[in-house]
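Entry type: protein chain
Record version: 2
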Amino acid sequence: MPGLRFGPEFDPEQYELLEFHHRGGEAEVWRAVRTGHSGLKELVAAKIMLERDPSEVRRWLGRWDDVSHNAHRLGVTDLVVPSFLLGPSPHRPGTMPTSSLLGYQISPWVDGVPLHSWARANRAGPAAAAEVLARLCRIVDELHRKRWVHRDISPANVLVDAHGQVKLIDLTFLAPLDHTLTVAVFTPGHVPPEAEQVGGFPTTGKDLFAVGTLARTLLLPEHGRLDHRSAAEQARAELLAAGYGDDIAQWACEALARDPDRRPAPLGPWAARGRELLRAHRPSPRTTGLAVLPDAAGRPLVAAAGAAGVVLAGHGAHRLPPGHGPVAVRELVFGWAGRQGELVLCAEDGAGALWVGTATGWWEAARGVTGLAGAVDSTGELTVWTAAGGALHSYRWAPGRTLTGRELPGCPADRVLAAVEERSGAWLVLVEHGGRVLSWRTGSTPTPLGPPGTVRAAALARTSAGPQAATLHADGSVRLHTVGSAGPGSETGDGEPALGLAMAGHRGGPTIALAGEGGVRLRLPATGTSRRPRWWRPTLRPATRVALAVGDDWRLCLAAMVEGELQCWQEDAGYRWQSVPLPDPGEA
């Protein structure tokens, strides 16, 4: 409680608690003020051990004394060295403190925030994140050069101030490389696949891996915990899905390598390489998912997803599901389910949770998912496909029924890219697995689509000649494939790199929409005597996301995120394209 006092037994009111910060493991952390004998006041961070066993308290105090002595002797710049004391429990001023003693770890107050909080508030882009990472790497390298390891690097133990300066705190488990371990440390999401063993020796590999997890936190601050068993694969898929290039994804995952010997050491050159890559990178758009559907009146309804959650834009009384919904949404699917056409939304958030939203509200349906695709099927059920635990999963929902999910163990999947219903109950799904794209049909085994390589996004469409797939690659190129062929496919587009891709089967061939720096481009099937596809540009303003849909009357709807603004076009009764003004979207 703020206002309580504590201190050593000879001066039990030397410190006053001001503000609670957080609780972690065996301790609470507070902002406190120390009043010296001269009356001068000093802000400190007070870590209060909650252990009540006197012998255990003294054991911790002995370990902390060793840590303080060793850290002072090392003299590593920007390593925050604490002091320690043993004293009564916090108590009101002027009252007799209890006889029980607690251990207190006292550190100079750092006017900064934990790294994950800084990353979420960062508006200066990836270049600023790269500077913070480089400063952290300098501290860790200096520690390693002196043959010591931190062993508990996590976002909460890295403080960043308003100028991007970095301090590494909490040295409880600081250890030399040549001393056996008496306690193992496991911070979920930040430890490597190889586990520490009591009686074994510490390694620098643990710190290197943890710095890699923090690089991911800086670039993807809204994402959830990494699975240490497949950290590099998970991070790579997330970075690509967020719009980072293959070069950045490959660089960031080097520190997350399963083999400790393949992690970059020292970290400085690795951080410098990342700084150059991130300085050249254009910030990824805040809108990460986009979908469009005609409503009951045939008018376009657009759903967009991003850091703020999900928004709807369209004419008519369409409302988002009530209640608290997902934030930091990466992918979304929506449709009109059942005979009454109830609006149902499915969203994948930054923590890898699958959310379902209906007229009754939002709920979390699954966790640990990657990628999302689907549509309302021929029976009126909304079917979505996602990857979880290395396998393909499907979820089905219709009004009046509970959500049903199942795993398809015959199709390995790291991420779902696209899905389309070929005929009633039979689906075609594109997944990413092991660095290549696979196509999977209901009841069959997966087959490669194109050669191995990095894919940012993919789309599927039914055509009179069979289903076709389009893939958007890391360099911005787009290729059109015949499903079931492992060939490279044919390059489509006019050589301009694309940032977004959508496709729909329509009147004799697939219609492909691309978004990029040069605006929105629509590739229409060949008609009449012409055997070549036609290109139409509804806007030349830079665009980042694009979506396509076909109505019951075979008219196409096109939506795009253009310079941060939702724009929409639709074919009229004569199949001529018209701009459709959208009202301000209603936020979740």
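Comment: The first helix runs from residue 54 to 74.
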